[in-house]
Every structure is written in C-alpha cells, then in structure tokens.
Amino acid sequence: MSNGTAPAAAAKAEEPPRKKESMRSPREDLSLTDRIFLAIENPVLRRELLTALRSHKSFVLQFIYLAILGAIVYLAWPEGMIATKSELAQKLFHIFGQSQLVLLSIMSPAFSASAMTIEKERRCMDLLLTSPIRPSTILMGKYMSSVVYLFLLILTTAPVIMVVLWLGGISPGEIAGLYVLLISVAATFGMIGLTCSVFFHRSQTSLAISYMIVLPLAMILFVFSLTWNSFFLLEAAVWPSALLLGAARVMYQACLVRLRQPFDPVFKAAEEEDVATQTGLVLVRDRFPDNILAPANANELLPDRVNPMYQKEIRSEIFGRGTLFLRLIIQISMFMSVGFLTFLFLGMEYIFVDFLVIFTMLVAPAFACNTFTQERERGTLDLLLTTLIRPSQIVSGKFLSCIRLSLFLTGLVGVTLCFYLFINAGNEGFVSRAIYLLIYFIILFMTIVFETTLAMFFSLMFSSTVRSMITTYTVVLVLFAAPVAAKQLLIAFTQMKQSEFFFALVTSPFQAIHSVVPKDANLADNPMIWPYYLGFCVLASMLSMGYVFSAFERLSLKASNTK
Amino acid sequence: MIEVRGFVKRYEQFMAVDNLDLKIEKGDVFGFIGPNGAGKTTTIRFLTTLLKPTSGTAWINGYEVTRQVDDVKRSIGFMPDTFGVYDGMKVWEFLDFFATAYGLARSKRRALIEDVLSLVDLVSKRDALVNGLSRGMQQRLCLAKTLVHDPPVLILDEPASGLDPRARVEMKALLKELQKMGKTILVSSHILPELADFCNKIGIIERGKLLVAGPVQDVIRSIRMNRIIEVVLTHPSEVCEVTLAHHEHVRNLTAAENRYKFEFAGNDEDVIALHRKLMSQDVPLVWFNEIQADLEEAFMKITKGLVA
Asked: How far apart are CA B19 and CA B209, in angstroms?
C-alpha cells in the first residue's frame, strides 16, 4: 500500500504550488459602484463611439432624418384654426410613425450588419478575442454602438411630435406607444444586422441578408399600422414590442454562443459550404434550375474568343459569395412570395409586381455593388489591368453576369406572375392580358438593368463595397419610394393634383406598375407614367454605363495616384 | 530589354520619383532595392503600364510603355507586392482565366498550364481552391500566372515578402531557374543577401532618386572604397604586425591574437605585393583573404534611412 502511494505523494510534492489568488477574479475585490462603472465602461463601445463621433457623418445623418420628418409635418400641417384639427392630427401622427418605421428599417442594418464582419475583414478579430475582453462585452459593445445612435435619432424627433400635439386628438398613451414600438424596432433590427455579421464572414453578405430579413418585417409592421388605427396605442404597441425584443434576446444568445466558439480568422468558403450542406442549402450546379444560374463546373478550359471576364464571373465569382447566401435569398424570397401570391389570385396583380420590384431592389444592388470595389479590396485589379483584357470586356462581363443572376432570381420568384394570363380573365381578353404581362416584365427587366448600372456606378465611385452598397440602396429607395410617399402626402394634406407633380413620379416603378392596367380610376390615374418610367430607366442606365465605361480606364490611374 | 529615361512622378508637392534613368540588358537579373517609400513600386507600376508618368518614358522589349501598351503587356509578366486571389476558383481555372486573358488558344492552354504548374511545383494542387492555398503557394501560383504567356521580361515586386524560410528558399531556386531560362528579371526586395545571390545587377533608390546602379560587385566596391583583408597566422607574429602597421595602404588595423583585419587602399598589384612580402618574411601564414563585399553593408552605407 505504502509502495503505491509513495510515488504519487512524491509527484504531488513536486508539483509547483498553485497561486490561489489568481483564481480570484479581480472584480471580486471591487465595490458595487466600481463594478457598475466597469460594466458601463465597455472598451469596445467606447472605441466605437469615439470613432463614430469623430466623423461628421453622424450629425449629417441626424440632420437629414429630422429634416425628412420635419418636412412631412410641415407639408401636412393644416391651415386655419388648429384646435379643430384633431382628426388631421391623428392622420399626421400615423404618417409620422410610419415614416420613422420605414427610415429605421433602412438604417438599422446599415449600422449593425458590418459591425463584426468588418473586424473579420480587417483581421482584427484575433486581437479582440485574445484580449481579456469577454465575448459578451464585445457583443454588447458592438450592439450598443450600433443601436445607441438609432435611439438618439428616435429621441431627437420628440420635439417634432410635440408640435403635432398642439393639434389635439393625440393621447400621451399613443406617443408613449409609438416610442416604445420604435425603440423596440430599432433594437431588434439592429440585432438582426449584428447577428448576420456574427454568422457571416463578409459585410456584403451580412448586409444583404439583413435587408432581406428586415424589410419584410418592416412591411408587416407598416401594413399593421395602415390597417389598425390604434396600433400605436401603448396597450397595443407593447405586444409587438415584446415579441420583437424577445426575438432580439434569442438572437443575442445565439451570437454569444457563436462568439464563444473558436474563430478561424481566414475565410474559407468550405466552412460556409459545410453549414449549407448540413442545412440542405446547397446549389447543385449541374441540376435544373440551378444550372441556369451558373454553368456546370466542368473540367473544360474556357472556349476561344469568349469574354474571359464574363466566363470567370458566372463560373466562380457568384459562388465566391457562398452558395448559402444565394440559397438564403432564394428561400426567403420564395417564402415572401407565397403571401403576395394572394394578391395575384385576388386580381390585384400589381401588388405582386410591387413585391417583385422590392425583390429586385434587394437582389440587383447586392450582386452589382461590389463589381469594382471587390477587385480593389482583394488586390486582383492590378492582375487584371496588366493583362490584355479590354476595359470594355471587364465592364460588360461584369454587367452581363450581374444581370443574368438578378434576372434568374427574380424570374424564379416571378414566374407565377404568368398565372395572371389565366386567373379572372373575365371581361378582359387573353391578348390584352398578355400585353399587360409583357409590360410588367419589361418594367421589371428595366428596373433590374437600372439598379445594376447604378450599383456598378457607385462601385466605381467608392473604394469600399459596404459604402457602395448602402449608397445604392439609399438612392434606389429615394428614387423608387419617395415619389409615391410624397404623392400620398401631398394628395392627403394639400389641394394639389397628381398632374401637377407628374414628372416627379416617373422615377418610381411602383407608380409605373400601377399605371399599366387602366381598369380602376383610382389605380391608374396616370396611365402614361410607365412609358416615361421606362424612358427614365434607359436614360439613367445609359448615363451610368457611359460613365463606367469611360471612367474605368482612369480607375487604374486613380488607384495608382492614391499614395 | 528595359530602358527608363527621365521618369518623373509627382503627386502635387510630393516627388515620388525624380528623373530616373535605368538600363537593364537582356538576360539580366536586376535587383531593385531601397527603403520603404523610396519609389520602387511607383517605378514598377509605371513599367507595368499601371501608372501615368508626370514626365519621361520607358521601353520594354523595344516597346514604349506609354504608347504601345498592349505590346508591353504581352512582353511582361507582373507579380505585384500585394495581390489577392479569386474565391471559388480552382488553381487550374485561375491559370486558364489568365491564359485566356492573354489571348492564348485553347489548344495550347492545357499543356501550358501543366508546364507552369510543374515549374512552380503546384501540380498536386491543380484542383485545389485558390483561396484555400497557403501564402507561399499563392505566391507561387501568382508567379505561375506571370509565366503563363511566356513573357521575355518578368517584373516581380517583393516576391518573397511574407514567406517562411523554406518558401523563401524555394522561391529563390525558382527565380534562379527562370534566370537560366534566359528571362530578363527586375525584382524588388528587402531581403538583400538573397538578392546578392542571384542578381547580376542592382540599383539602389532612395527618396525617388536612383543613387547607384550596375553590376553587384562594382556597386559594392564603389560604395566601400577600400577592400577589407583578413590575415590569420598559426601564432601571433611581431614581424607581421609591424609590417602591416607600417604599410602605406593599410588602414584601421585590428589585431586579435593570431588574427589581423584591416582596410586596404591599394589595387590588385599592391595586394599581391603585400602577400609576397609576408611570405618572404616567413610569417606563419594560414589565411590571407579579401572579405567579400556585403550588399547589406553597401545598402546601409549609401542610404541615409530617409523615407520619401
């Protein structure tokens, strides 16, 4: 017995003495007040806020946000005695809330969807994870820095809504309800962006997926606010708010779990591919319809006399973004289209086409906004520019591959629109329906062309993909949706007629779509808008592409001249 | 093969390269060295048609860089200092893409790709994804890309940067192989001993000015002025020490037991004369040798550590 225990005892005696003090967390020695200050003094949050506040953009954005809301209130402000306008005040209050919903849904992903991906892209993730900062501190710091600015934006609108209070008819409960809902929306949408940035490797993918999730959610909330008058009442608003915040909490926990796992700093397509395989989200290149999206990955060399750029783009680049990304787009859009199909069967096909336009708004810029920025970011531009490929080949190759991809994805979702020919044909003949359908398809096609050329234009103008993407989304949204919103506002609150601002509407595909079928006087009060819209698309696309073609040769010089 | 005349690149008030003249003959391996920000990459970007000069011009393989852009592109293989690879592309697809970009016929491409892959020792990685390759392999793949259209001139900007010692040795061997194949190579690097190994000519640039250029040993000698000679005896000798200390060409003599080191200001004949003198004095000579000039030492001597 003693023989067996002796070596063990000797070994124990040789073990270096453990430092018991080190097991004790330094935090345990701190007072409660110190601990609270430590919790607040999140180093990640501090760094983020410091860099954000050094930039003038935050203040410019805040000014624009308030200017838009102020302009809405100003335009809708009734003339004459204000004490008798409570009904109008209700309307104004609702528009105010809805506008904020729309603005927040656009801005939230832009703030949070690149929060973690940018650390991965800059290879700073290792520095963060190997520091004593805990994953929860990193996550909370990133999250708070993304949403705190949104909260600030929401709160700074309080003076504007106080002005509306003068009109009467709005209860404090409604104002409280509106702000509870807006803050919950900002918190949740911000968390959706952050979750995407934790799970994806690239800002571009994270941003696109965030918008794919946030915009449908915003649309649902928007539809609720349109159809339910007491939606902003505190009693009603707490339910969707609680639901949203609950979802945000779950996402936060999922992010935390992901961050605690070992992180591979080097992006590997295979890693995403594994996730995709496990979830069944894999594109099989040699099967229909996936082979329309991209040719089978044959072991054949490129043919002679082809545009190598186009071939490269469709054979590998679209898969470089990860098939998970493509599949997610397809599946989310398919899911959304099921709801919108109802409108097709109700004879309101224009609502379904509206949805398709929204889909193109998400997809086309997502694929085209990195055409040139990505070549610069990963350092392949010099390799290209020292070959014999012509700049026109590079531009046209990239343009055609983007168009092909966006058309395929939109076609996949929009193919059901063909049912329009047969459903409720009623008094209208087959031929007239076929003509309307053709016009819808032309509108969709030209919208994709316009969005793609615009995204390519910004991709040439900016050096970062994220900046190019956010600018494209913003410009597309302003051109497409702002005229419709302004029209609704002007007609509801002023005596202006649509004919007075006809040309302001030609940039909106929604307006064009609603003017195709002149069956209802309310829907088609401007029957000639769609040809003008097509004209606008052609002109704008030609200008964008003209600039891109002429400026591409200067791109290399521009890059080189930046010392 | 490469000739630069009066190349000037100015960015507003900042002069990146100032009136650079350079001539590299066919088959030369020219090491282009200088501190960071000296103007190496600017010159290389000009030669590879990526940069418009403020003034001056250059010819590569007889083609003018600013005018005959396509002919210049056909004549050069360029490897930039920082470069990326395309995601989701296999090694052979990457090379096929660039071979097509240079207009090579499909019938010739397959054999060409195999040849360059075997030259850079990446045959086993033929079907691997390029973004999954290690840094060293990506460097070799980029070198394969520069060779795919068989250009007579190679312009390599820091080809060994970021490589581990083994990959660096492999890269050096590869460049020697290319030298044997008769390629004219312009290579910029910070790793000076390695450049001295395979370059026959060097140019040192600082603050946009070419300080010196020519055959490696000539450049070093011109910088060093005096040769350094080391003498080793079997045991210390007073005769030897006195002879050296009083010799008209010997400077800065240092003695450590049986070992003497000094600068020698004389020519080859004077060296021979000194050697004969020591032998005639029955000095127990084991070693009488001129210490070879060191590129690193020459670089440190000529540059002032100023960054443009």
From this structure: 7
Total length of chain B: 308
- Name which of A267, A301, A308 is nearest B101 (Cβ-Cβ): A308
Question: Inter-chain contact B49–A386, Cβ cutoff 8 Å?
Answer: yes
Whether the predicted pLDDT of A12 surpasses 60: no
Spatial CA neighbour of A90 closest among A172, A32, A189, A169 = A169
DSSP state of B293: P
Chain B residues lying within 8 Å of A382, measured CB to CB: 48, 50, 78, 80, 83
Q: Taking each helix axis from N to C terminus, what angle separates A349-368 and A323-345, rounded to the nearest 10 degrees?
A: 160
Tell me the nearest-neighbour CA distance from A305 into chain B, angstroms: 8
Q: From residue A194, how far is each of A44, A155, B172 by CA, in Å?
A: 14, 22, 46
CA distances from A561 to A383, B11, B50 (A): 17, 7, 10
pLDDT tens column, A106-134 = 788 888 888 888 888 777 777 777 777 77
Q: Token pair 């102020």 is at which residue? A: A70
In the 8-state DSSP scheme, what is residue A78? P
Start-end of H helices in B210-280? 216-224, 238-245, 268-280
A-chain residues near B145 (CB < 8 A): 383
Mean pLDDT confidence for A465-472 = 85
CB A508 within 8 A of CB A481: yes
Query: pLDDT confidence of A425, banded at 50, 70, 90?
Result: low
Contact A269 B87 (CB under 8 A): yes
Residue A84, pLDDT score: 56
CA separation for the pair A359, A451 (Å, rounded): 12
Question: What is the SS3 assignment for B204?
Answer: strand
Question: Mean pLDDT across the stretch A296-300?
Answer: 65
ipTM of this predicted complex?
0.73
Q: Find the CB nearest B106 among A269, A301, A385.
A: A301
Nearest 5°: the CA angle A418, A419, A425 is 115
Q: Residue A83 above 70 pLDDT?
A: no
Residue A535: pLDDT band by 50, 70, 90 thresholds?
very high
In this prediction, residue A520 carries a pLDDT of 53
Range in A127-136, A204-213, A230-239, B165-174 the model is least confident about: A127-136
Contacts of B117 in chain A (CB under 8 A): none
Strand-pairing partners, residue A327, are: none
Query: Best interface-test mutation with B: which of A204, A383, A558 has the largest number of B CBs within 10 A?
Result: A383
For A557, the closest of B51, B93, B97 (CB atoms) is B51
Q: How far is CA B60 from the centre of its chain?
A: 18
CA distance A475 to A493: 26
Residues 6 or more apart whose CB falls under 8 angstroms from that of B274 comprise B247, B249, B250, B264, B266
CA-angle at A318, arms to A314 and A323, nearest 5°: 130
Give the pLDDT band (50/70/90) at residue B227. Answer: confident
